[in-house]
């Protein structure tokens, strides 16, 4: 599918992603990242807002990652400030309760700011203008001036120290797909890519459940939390599991054994481990169907309306 030079470029890009992935896992082991704000309600709202503006999938996933990174730093900073300035536990609890109330009221505005930033980083489509952001916020029942919206976007950027080079798992998925398409003769790239986006959307909304199900059995709470945090930071495993799921859902579009072998080789993860991740996604889909959550195959048609 790709010429030798293009394939080499993809391999180099995957190597860069691999290094970033190792750094992210290392940071998770050192408890420097959380992923706490991959909360289903937050993710669903972000997806809804991005669909409202007709943004491409890269914006929705980048927004979730930006929002999580910002809120983690922001909340930790506020926690330290309250902790350092309260002499008693009673005073701390009272002040922190007030902070939580204020934070809850600002979530929608913070999300919109992250969408603005993510849309500017996207190689596709248009950017979210301040005027459009203001109209959306008014539609949601919030009255902010354009100046307030600009200041909030700046606040997010400052908190992130202007480092917005936060890579979403979609970058890993897309690179792996292109390399598999280069390795395997029969591979319906476009259709499988769309299925990957649907699977990844589902995983984002079932984030905690899927990763917690990977580690069954009796493990001490603190140890299990740390292992789960490390798993959540492994975007290569996530991308591999998502692609493996999409391959299984597309039996007529590729040779599954060949595609899985190529995937395993490219992401350096054993086929059985990829299948295990895929099985956890399938189990989560079955549970979601029982609880009336939209299954993967219906999700894309709903979001396009």
From TrEMBL:
GO cellular component terms attached to this protein's record: site of double-strand break
Organismal lineage: Eukaryota, Metazoa, Ecdysozoa, Nematoda, Enoplea
Matching InterPro entries: Cyclin-like_sf, Cyclin_N
Residues annotated as domain Cyclin N-terminal: 41-164
Organism listed in the record: Trichuris muris
Protein name listed in UniProt: Cyclin N-terminal domain-containing protein
CDD domains for the chain: CYCLIN_CNTD1
GO biological process, one term: reciprocal meiotic recombination
């Amino acid at each position: 599918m790709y010429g030798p030079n293009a394939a080499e470029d993809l391999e180099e890009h995957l190597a860069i992603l691999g290094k970033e992935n190792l750094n992210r896992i290392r940071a998770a082991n050192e408890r420097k990242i959380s992923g706490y704000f991959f909360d289903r309600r937050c993710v669903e709202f972000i997806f809804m807002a991005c669909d409202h503006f007709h943004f491409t999938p890269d914006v929705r996933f980048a927004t979730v990652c930006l929002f999580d990174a910002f809120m983690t730093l922001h909340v930790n900073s506020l926690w330290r400030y309250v902790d350092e300035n309260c002499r008693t536990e009673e005073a701390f609890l009272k002040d922190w309760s007030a902070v939580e109330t204020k934070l809850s009221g600002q979530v929608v505005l913070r999300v919109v700011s992250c969408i603005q930033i993510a849309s500017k980083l996207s190689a596709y489509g248009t950017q979210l203008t301040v005027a459009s952001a203001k109209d959306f916020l008014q539609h949601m029942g919030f009255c902010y001036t354009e100046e307030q919206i600009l200041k909030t976007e700046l606040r997010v950027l400052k908190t992130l120290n202007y480092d917005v080079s936060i890579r979403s798992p979609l970058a890993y998925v897309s690179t792996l797909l292109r390399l598999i398409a280069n390795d395997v003769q029969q591979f319906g790239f476009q259709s499988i890519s769309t299925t990957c986006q649907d699977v990844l959307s589902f995983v984002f909304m079932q984030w905690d459940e899927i990763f917690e199900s990977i580690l069954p059995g009796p493990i001490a709470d603190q140890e299990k939390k740390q292992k789960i945090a490390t798993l959540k930071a492994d975007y290569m495993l996530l991308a591999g599991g998502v692609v493996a799921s999409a391959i299984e859902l597309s039996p007529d579009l590729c040779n599954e054994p060949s595609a899985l072998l190529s995937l395993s080789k490219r992401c350096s993860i054993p086929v059985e481990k990829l299948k295990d991740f895929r099985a956890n996604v399938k189990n989560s889909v079955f549970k979601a169907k029982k609880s009336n959550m939209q299954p993967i195959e219906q999700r894309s048609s709903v979001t396009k309306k």
